[in-house]
Design goal:
The protein has one domain: Sandwich (Jelly Rolls). It is mainly β. The protein is built from no helices and 16 strands. The chain starts with a strand and ends with a strand. The radius of gyration is 15 Å and the shape is globular. An 8-stranded antiparallel sheet has the order 5-6-9-1-11-12-13-14, with no helix packed on it.
Length: 187
């Protein structure tokens, strides 16, 4: 599976991207190292690679030259631009249950749907740009929305629950559970 960040507008950094095989609520925040797939901080500051900070070695590549930015939520970050169709591509093994979380800030309100992130099967796994498993977008109404796509291409949209303002940081997460066939988004 690959994660692609396709931007149709300007977005300043997706600073932290973590993929977990499951997410559990508790009173303490901790990363379960046994189930984590990867952690991409996007804080390298230069180059065309993104390092997986977990122990799994799922390092990725930057496509169409997103720009390094020193004004991230916690320091350095990446800025993805629509005109370039820039994104980060990271390798993942296939899983139908996934949680993806990121810090994101839009520099301008979108005029069309803007993809924040989505997971899809890689070409090696029979995937193509239309075989997304889960994704989250911001539409031109500023509303955050997500979608879960099943193996039969059945689509289930998550409720639109939050309008996002430009130039404000948001911590966004989306989960998909293969067992229950349900997904949720969080802001």
């Amino acid at each position: 599976m690959t994660i692609r960040n396709w931007m149709k507008g300007t977005i300043v950094p997706i600073l932290t991207l973590m993929l977990l095989s499951s997410m559990f609520l508790s009173t303490e925040a901790a990363i379960d190292k046994a189930s984590i797939v990867g952690i991409w901080l996007f804080d390298e500051g230069s180059g065309n690679k993104v390092k997986d900070s977990s122990d799994n070695g799922n390092h990725g590549n930057l496509v169409n030259k997103p720009e390094w930015d020193n004004d991230g939520k916690f320091g350095k970050a990446l800025s993805f631009e629509t005109a370039k169709s820039s994104y980060a591509l990271v390798p993942l093994s296939h899983s139908n249950s996934i949680t993806v979380a990121a810090w994101a800030k839009y520099t301008a309100l979108p005029t069309t749907n803007i993809g924040l992130f989505h997971a899809q099967a890689s070409e090696e796994q029979g995937g193509n740009p239309n075989t997304k498993v889960v994704g989250i977008w911001v539409e031109n109404t500023k509303m955050l929305w997500g979608r879960l796509i099943g193996p039969d291409n059945a689509r289930k949209n998550f409720p639109k629950t939050k309008a996002l303002d430009a130039k404000k940081w948001y911590h966004i997460a989306v989960t998909a559970d293969a067992k229950t066939k349900k997904g949720k988004q969080y802001v």
